Structures are given as structure tokens and as C-alpha cells.
Amino acid sequence: MNHHSSFRAYPTIRGRVRRLSAGLIATVALVAGMAGMGAAAAAADTVIDTVPVGTNPNGVAITPDGSRAYVANRVDNTVSVIDTATNMVVGAPIPVGLLPVGVAVTTPDGSFAYVTNSGGASVSVINTGTNMVDATVTVGNAPFGVAVTPDGSRAYVTNAGANTVSVINTGTNMVDATVTVGNAPSRVAVTPDGSFAYVTNAGANTVSVIDTGTNMVDATVMVGTFPSGVAITPDGSRAYVANFNDGTVSVIDTVTNMVAETVMVGTFPVGVAVAPDGSRAYVTNSGGASVSVIDTATNTVAETVTVGANPIGVAITPDGSRAYVTNNGAGTVSVIGIDQCTGSLCFDFGSLTGSGSGAGSVFS
């Protein structure tokens, strides 16, 4: 008896095979359908919530556990704290110094938030356990941007009015070093290994690269006109710099410290944040009420998300599910639900939370 006649002798088995085949076909069809839906959704980051905060919100930073977002309200001289599980402001606004702009939360413990007071020469240190100012650190004139090293030991503060960067020892809250950089330093980002700090010099159209081991400028990179925000990819290989006057983003190769590519974005880009997986860079276009989403694999704009008036700061939750954008002209924060993909399947985890609810999950 050959295999064919044997197979014909067992109709029950044949039926089971047919049903199994049909099931497999249906499963394949379902997966294909989901993949198709995912592909469409992949270009559909959307605003899932809008949170009222103070007047002229600027910088925003998220705690390492993703539970809180700290927002500097420039005109109010306060910081608002958003509970990211409810997307509501918790507690009263925290009074800080004059005209707060930048904010960074210490890593990896998230114990403190460092806030630059651009109207003076100080940094307010907020204890995130009590949400009260624990210390005030004197720095250079018109401090603007701030970034904390990955080990949490130092905070780098750009002093726009002094053309310097103050290096704060977070253990003592005293300035350990002062580094001279370019004209009107704006924002700063530290590489994931903590070795270098990238400082945008708005008045010089350059980026100063500070060696954090020596606290000396190791390189100077020419970028676009009036560079503002800067963010570094998780692998430390590239720095994304928003050029305010050009409507572009310069992509710096951190190995050569040269601009590898230039990406056209929206009008007057200010803030930049890179997703935790390094796949996308989010750029706030202050002149266009939008956020440009750059695909970092191709360095092209994959989508544009409409937010509130005059968006400035942007920060992404550690799990990569949401981006928090400060709308300076609206007194609000837009919460963008970020689509995430596994292979060809994409799911908008952010939207699963719904408005004002849901699961939890830097640079101002």
C-alpha cells in the first residue's frame, strides 16, 4: 500500500488535516491583516491627552521610572509635576527661581530635579520625594539648558549670558568646574556612557564637545543657524541638533564629530528627544505647532504630529510609549501616544491608556 492509498483509507485524518490547513490559512491571514494594520498605524503617532500646566511651559523631563514629568513654567516661576498614570498635575506648582527654562532629573534614582532659572544665575534643586526645593546653586549668568550624567554625579548647565558651562557636583551641589564654550550656549546632552557633553552654541552656529573626564572642550562642530535642542542616540553614535533658524536638524557622527546628514523639519525647531530604542527622533517645531518624527535609520521625516501652540520641550517615557511636549503658547503639555512595533506588527500602546488614564510609561 502506497502513501496515497493509506491516506485515502483514513477520512478522519484527512478531515483533521483539512481543518488544520484551514486554521493555518486563517492564522496567516489574520497575521497579515494585523501586519497591514500595523504598517498603517506605524505612521500614526497621535496626541492622546492634553494637560494644562503653568504659563509658558518650556523644559520637560521624566523620572527614570516613568511615573512623573517635571515641567518648567517660565513666566510663573514654577514647576508643574504631572502624574503620567493619570496625565494630571499633582500637588501645587513648585516655586523655583526667576524664569525657569531647563529641567533634568537625576539618574538612575530620580531623587532630584535640576531647574535652570534663566532670569538670574541659579539652579533650583527639587527633591522629588517631597517636591520642595532642597538647594539653590549659583552658576553663570542666564542659565538655560541642563543635563545630568548617567551616573547622576554631575549636572552640566549652559550659561547663555556667560558663554560657559557650569559643572555641578550633585553630591555637594557646588560648582566643581566652569568650561568656556561658544557664544550663547543653549542646550546640552550627555552621551550614554557619560564621556562627553554636547553643547549647542546658538550665537556661534556650533556645538562644543566637552570631555567630561577633563572638563575641557575636545571638539567644535559647525552645524546650522542658531542651534538649540540636542539629543544623543542610546548607542551614543549620533547627536541630533535642532537648528532654529534653518528649519533643519544636523546629525553629528560622534566618532568623527562631523555632520553626517542634515534633515529638513518644520518651522523654528527647538527641542529634540530620541526614543529609547533609537529608532526615532522627535523634534518640536515652535513655529508650526507640530512635532517632526525622524526615522533615524533613513534620517527622513516619517510623520508630523500636530500639537499645541509654540511647542518647545519634548521628553519620552523610558518605555518609549509616550512623548510629552510643552506647548509654550498654550500653557499645556501634549501627550503623544507612540506606535511601537515588533517585527511587522505594530501596536499603539499609548492610545490603550485612553484620555487621562492608563499605564506608565531628556531634554528640554
What would CATH call the class of the largest domain?
Mainly Beta
Coarse morphology:
globular
Low-pLDDT stretches are 1-43, 348-364
Distance between the termini: 77 Å
CATH homologous superfamily label of the largest domain:
YVTN repeat-like/Quinoprotein amine dehydrogenase
Percent of residues in β-strands? over 45%
The helix content, as a percent range, equals 10-25%
Rg, Cα atoms, Å: 24 Å
* Overall tally of domains: 2
The overall pLDDT average reads: 86
How does the SSE layout of this entry go?
Blueprint: H1 3-8, H2 11-41, E1 46-52, E2 57-62, E3 68-73, E4 78-83, E5 88-89, E6 94-95, E7 100-105, E8 112-117, E9 122-127, E10 132-138, E11 143-148, E12 154-159, E13 164-169, E14 174-180, E15 185-190, E16 196-201, E17 206-211, E18 216-222, E19 227-232, E20 238-243, E21 248-253, E22 258-264, E23 269-274, E24 280-285, E25 290-295, E26 300-306, E27 311-316, E28 322-327, E29 332-337, E30 340-342, E31 345-347
Antiparallel strand pairs: 1-29, 2-3, 3-4, 4-5, 4-6, 7-8, 8-9, 9-10, 11-12, 12-13, 13-14, 15-16, 16-17, 17-18, 19-20, 20-21, 21-22, 23-24, 24-25, 25-26, 27-28, 28-29, 30-31
